[in-house]
Amino acid sequence: MQYEIKELPEVRVAYLRYKGPFGAAIGDFWHQVVTPWQNAYGLADKVTYGVAQDDPNTTPASECRYDACVEVAAGYEIKPPAKEAHIPAGRYAVARFRGTGADVPAAWGAFFGQLHAEGKADAGVCFERYAADYLLDQETGVFEAELCVPVKA
């Protein structure tokens, strides 16, 4: 998988948490819960992030946590049910992803595997980053994102 090494700044986010099995349910969570919340709180057309808090290979599916995040300005007042978090600044390997929700786990597996084989992967927050003008093809379910993994200096 091709990737670039980028220095990314810290990002303040408002997030809603999903708990349960990863996969199609996360897409449903974005569509049914996160997008209406974004629209209600003036957060549409912002850069968004998906942050898996648990490894589904080692955590029971019912206990897996995933944060659907929206980038917010320093002065933005985050109101419940959302919570505040920060995606840390750092050096990341960034790969472009294009596919469906069903393709995401394999893409992450390939990317992690490659970075570990190259000895570059580092501990820290891994995330998907979605452009402010994110589009999901309603017919095919195809979308684009960036997969971001911390790497050693």
Structural class: alpha+beta
CATH class: Alpha Beta
Strand order of the largest sheet: 1-6-8-7-3-4-2-5
- Euclidean distance between termini CA atoms: 20 Å
**Tell me, what's the shape?**
globular
The CATH topology turns out to be Multidrug-efflux Transporter 1 Regulator Bmrr, Chain A
Task: Please give the largest β-sheet.
Answer: 8 strands, antiparallel
**Percent helix among the residues?**
10-25%
Give the C-alpha Rg: 15 Å
Write down how many β-strands occur, each being a DSSP E stretch of 2 or more residues: 8
CATH architecture: Alpha-Beta Barrel
Domain AraC effector-binding: 1-152
Protein name: AraC family transcriptional regulator
InterPro entries: AraC_E-bd (IPR010499), GyrI-like (IPR029442), Reg_factor_effector_dom_sf (IPR011256), SmbC-like (IPR050908)
Organism: Duganella sacchari
